[in-house]
Specification:
Elements lengths: L7 E5 L2 E2 L5 E5 L2 E5 L7 E9 L3 E11 L25 H18 L23 E7 L6 H5 L9 E5 L7 E3 L8 H17 L13 E8 L6 E7 L4 H11 L8 E6 L11 E6 L4 E5 L2 E5 L9 H15 L6 E5 L5 H6 L5 E6 L2 H13 L5 E5 L2 H4 L2 H7 L4 E4 L8 H10 L3 E6 L2 H10 L4 E9 L9 E8 L2
Parallel strand pairs: 4-6, 11-12, 16-17, 16-19, 17-18, 19-20
Antiparallel strand pairs: 1-5, 2-3, 3-4, 5-6, 7-8, 7-10, 8-9, 10-11, 12-13, 14-15, 20-22, 21-22
Helix pairs in contact: 1-11, 3-4
């Protein structure tokens, strides 16, 4: 069959592919189809044609797969968030496991790696402890908005980005990943901003005041922070927001205002002012309590973060005499969680502010067997470092999505700790890195952990042993 852009044809979806899309084949040609589910029989239209693959859109679903589920969100398919709400949760878990298997086969060249069933999330909705919403002067209308016949003010929106839209925002009245209190805050802030005629940010013109609304919650402490990100300091806006947020039913324990006066679309900024409250919230994982500031990194699924750390602890096979190196330690959450089980933990992180947070968290929790060092992981570990901190029995790494720098791979090979645990949010780069270390370490097992239900994202914990 000769395919061309605009061709329409009927296919049966075979399996999930990268980035949450699904895959079908026609005469050997791979076709990526978003919003479809394996087992669906669908009519599709070719949108993009490349030499080795094509991309298509669903025209109509002829027969639905048994793996389908009914989405709970009215914005599903329009919002760029939960792309897998239409997939049965058990099928999501298996698809995520399979994505790890395929990453290790294709990106790593491994054969028959023991990938365990995906560890399911404690909660599949209302699980996020942080939500970042954007203001925009360009509202994106959904298909149902357009078909309703209503007239909408498209000059103001507070919500999340529509897929592949850097400037246009869907005006969300609800999101099933956040708490009911968080949802109420969003809707009240929207109403106040509209009523007060506060100008939302114009991404193209770089004008306007309101940029982002970030809500962080301590799921286990009840603390709640609101961070209003603006392009400049405006006391009248801040005072108006403060009066709103002090309402007892919203239970906002602290309100801060971050200033981002650059064109960059980010909730980070040059300055953050504490309007009221302590300027931070607390959250608990295990026996430990952590301070979380406006810019602090913290896993966004608290319950599942604790399960992830349990997996890391068990994979490390810890002994009370162990020295553990935690590379890419961030704010020290894994280091502190492991500290009761070992002699000593040494955390290394290139971001100096994160190390300050890690040290503060250690002091707050009265942990005295953790040392945190700011520096480049690829350059820091040398004979002097080993003499000062000891030779590690266990090595733990939790790098960013890009994986390990080649220098870090070399350091790991030289350290040759007896036990090695690699935590990754990107199985592709994890497989690549472990392939480079395959002469040094044997993969015992891999445990996928679902941190983000209804998305294609997966956390992968690899347990390895040094080859004698």
């Amino acid at each position: 069959m000769g395919l061309r852009k605009g061709s329409e044809l009927r296919v049966t979806i075979e399996k999930f592919a990268d980035r949450g899309k699904s895959l079908a084949r026609v005469d050997g040609m791979v076709i990526f189809v978003p919003a479809a589910v394996p087992g669906d029989e669908v009519d599709i239209r070719i949108r993009k044609l490349k030499k080795k693959y094509a991309e298509a859109e669903v025209v109509q679903t002829v027969r639905e797969s048994s793996l389908r589920a009914k989405p709970v969100c009215r914005y599903f398919g329009h919002c760029g968030g939960c792309k897998w709400q239409h997939v049965d949760y058990e099928a999501q878990l298996e698809a995520k496991r399979q994505s790890v298997v395929e990453a290790f086969e294709h990106a790593g060249g491994f054969d028959q790696v023991d990938v365990k069933p995906t560890l399911r999330s404690v909660a599949t909705y209302l699980y996020r402890n942080k939500m970042e919403f954007s203001f925009s002067s360009q509202r994106w209308l959904t298909k149902s908005d357009i078909e309703s016949g209503q007239i909408f003010d498209k000059s103001f929106a507070l919500g999340l980005h529509a897929p592949r839209q850097f400037a246009k925002i869907i005006d969300l009245e609800e999101c099933h990943l956040q708490s009911a209190e968080s949802r109420e805050i969003v809707n009240r802030v929207r109403a106040l901003a509209r009523q007060s005629k506060w100008a939302p940010w114009d991404t193209r013109g770089h004008t306007g005041l309101l940029r982002h609304l970030v809500i962080r919650e301590g799921k286990r402490t009840g603390d709640r922070m609101v961070n209003l990100v603006t392009s400049s300091r405006d006391s009248s806006v801040v005072d108006g927001m403060s009066e709103l947020l002090r309402s007892s039913e919203l239970a906002v324990s602290t309100f801060v205002n971050t200033i981002n006066d650059t064109p960059a679309q980010t909730a980070l900024g040059s300055e953050t002012y504490v309007v009221y409250g302590p300027g931070k919230i607390k959250e608990r994982i295990g026996d430990f309590e952590f301070d979380i500031g406006p810019q602090s990194f913290f896993q966004t699924n608290t319950d599942q973060a604790e399960r992830l750390y349990e997996v890391v602890r068990d994979a490390a096979g810890l002994r009370t005499s162990d020295i553990v190196y935690d590379l890419y330690c961030g704010t020290g959450t894994i280091s502190l969680y492991l500290s009761p089980y070992v002699r000593k933990v040494v955390g290394v992180e290139v971001v100096a502010d994160a190390i300050e947070d890690a040290r503060a968290n250690a002091r707050q929790n009265r942990v005295d067997n953790c040392s945190f060092i700011a520096g480049d992981v690829g350059k820091l570990v040398d004979p002097g470092f080993l003499e000062e901190h000891g030779i590690p029995d266990v090595l733990i790494v939790d790098p960013p999505r890009a994986g390990l720098h080649p220098r870090v791979v070399e350091q790991i090979a030289l350290l040759r700790a007896a036990r090695f645990v690699y935590v990754s949010c990107n199985p592709q780069t994890q497989a690549r890195d472990l392939s480079a270390l395959s002469g040094i370490y044997r993969i015992d097992a891999i445990q996928p952990v679902d941190m983000f239900p209804h998305t294609e994202h997966i956390e992968s914990v690899a347990r390895l042993t040094a080859i004698a």
